[in-house]
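pasting for the record
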Amino acid sequence: MHTPSTELDTAAAGTPDDARTAVLFKNGDAGLFAMMWEDSPEQLPTDRGGTWERLGTFPLGVQEIMPVDIAPEPVLRSLVSQGYIVWPMEHTLPFGTSQ
């Protein structure tokens, strides 16, 4: 299992124009990670219990390095369609494809 870097909060300045600031969350009790554009986890699912902990922000775009082992394309598609993406900690890839 790859644990996201705690050194997130990187400045988005100087990143390509397609990059936006995303927020990474962790719900250790439920064994989940999540990413979203919003700084507050209110929109994230709570049906599995636990609380969402904000790990930090990072620039998210197709040319940016991700703080977790995930291709940015499925993450971006999920953020556009539902506002967030959630995946189990034991998986390094969220559900979805990069097509």
